[in-house]
Design brief:
The protein has 5 helices and 7 strands; from the N terminus they run E-H-E-E-H-E-H-E-H-E-E-H. It is α/β, with parallel strands linked by helices. The model has no long low-confidence stretch (mean pLDDT about 95).
Amino acid sequence: MINMLTDWRRHVENLLPLYGHRNWIAVVDSAYPFQSSAGVETLVADCDQAEAVGFVIGSVNAASHVRPIVYIDAELAHLDERDAPGIDSYRSALASILADVAATPMIHEDIIKQLDEAGKTFQVLVIKTHMTLPYTSVFIQLDCGYWDAASEARLRSRLASQ
């Protein structure tokens, strides 16, 4: 489903309380493909991509029930300014936005496959911006904000010992 909302920020704010671990939010460039999985919703945001990433990361960080697991395209680190004019500026802006968040590089196609798979069971929100630089997408997998992997491992260990 695609939605040409003029107020994409409000839509993110309305969805975030409904979202939990295993939901995804992707902020992508204008050439990102329109995915057909039933659970994937696509919005068009007429703004700078760095602005959209900053808003989404800020919104997720402000929510107590979720925390972001961020993936960026592995290809981004290897782009050259000669081939993609403006890429150095974008990388700098993105580094500033993600300064307090660990971002894991992953091959772009592999992330799309993960979103497609997630969209079969969980909601995925894709926010398309007017960015016209390749491999600039930011993918945010939501995780539980009040329960971490170490706590889960201890719980599973106790369950297994019974």
